[in-house]
Write the structure tokens for this entry.
Amino acid sequence: MLINCQGKLIDLATPKVMGILNVTPNSFYDGGKYKNESEIVKQVETMLVDGADFIDVGAYSSKPNAEFVSEEEEIARLIPVLKLVLKEFPTTLLSVDTFRSEVAKAAVKSGASIINDISAGSLDDKMMETIGKLQVPYIMMHMKGTPQTMTQLTQYDDIVKEMLFYFSEKVALARSFGINDLIIDPGFGFAKTVEQNFEIMQKLELFKVLELPILAGVSRKSMIYKPLDLTPEKALNGTTALNMIALTKGASILRVHDVKEAVECVKLFSLMSL
């Protein structure tokens, strides 16, 4: 499975690691951690040295009940960071975590290679048309509602069946706009209970029916730290355990805060696949 990132072909047959860089003051784990240029450069360098294939930059927290951020502020937070990273590390493949088409447009213009949309176009009806014109890989996540309302929207008759239907519709719409490179993200923690998250993980291989790369993003989430009665800061071991399970069930990309440990997971998993 190849995706085209700014003319560079990336083969997802070998799983890849996407490091998270949140430039928000309020993300659930690392909000406000990287306040100035030197801290951002240091963190990106660490992730790249540790083996990150992509860096996913977010300027709008999507944690439950996250506060609203205007489009202008999101762009103002995001674009200087993209330019800074590419100035220091010119070959970096940057993904941008946004559900807004204007932010996506500005991000790609500033060198981003991938758009990662938590709403798969549901929160901006111009998003898919924009991605089709930009011709960049598009990560489509499953979610109901918005970050502000999703915790109340966890009712499903058959969650995996409903998610597969959701993705089949989204894929058809994306193809109609000429989007070539699609990646699906089950959206662990988004409009889902802890129990539902584990049902999705257990049945993750069923999403292979869509014949698209799967991104798994469980890093330090409540599905790990709540059952273990921990905090996000203490959830690395649980994250590693679930990352390995995700790989065995077909995940092509691990989206993580802790790149070194995820890269080790991929290396060990690859030995099983020889």
Q: What stands out?
A: The chain has nine helices and ten strands.
